[in-house]
C-alpha cells in the first residue's frame, strides 16, 4: 500500500485523495462524488496511455517520475483530465 503513496509511482494521488475526502465529507454518498471519480478515472487513463507509449518506445521508467510528469503537464499548458 505504501507504493501507492509514492508520487513517482502513483500519478493520480491528488485525484485519489480528493475522491476519498469527498466520500468522507458526504457520508459516502457516491453520487455526490461522481465528478471526483471521473477526474480520477481520466487521470489514470491519461497516464496509462503515456506509460504504454513509453514502453513501446523503450523509455524507462515506463511511468514518468513526478518531476517528469510536471514537465509534461507544463508543456501541455492545461490539465488533460
Automatic annotation (TrEMBL):
Keywords assigned by UniProt, alphabetized: Disulfide bond, Mitochondrion
PROSITE patterns the record matches: CHCH (PS51808)
Transmembrane segments: none
Name listed for the protein in its UniProt record: Coiled-coil-helix-coiled-coil-helix domain-containing protein 7
Pfam families given in the database record: COX6B
Family: Belongs to the CHCHD7 family.
InterPro entries linked to this entry: COX23, COX6B-like, Cys_alpha_HP_mot_SF
GO cellular component terms, A-Z: mitochondrial intermembrane space
Organism of provenance: Aotus nancymaae
Localization per Swiss-Prot or TrEMBL: Mitochondrion intermembrane space
GO biological process, one term: mitochondrial respiratory chain complex assembly
Source domain of life: Eukaryota
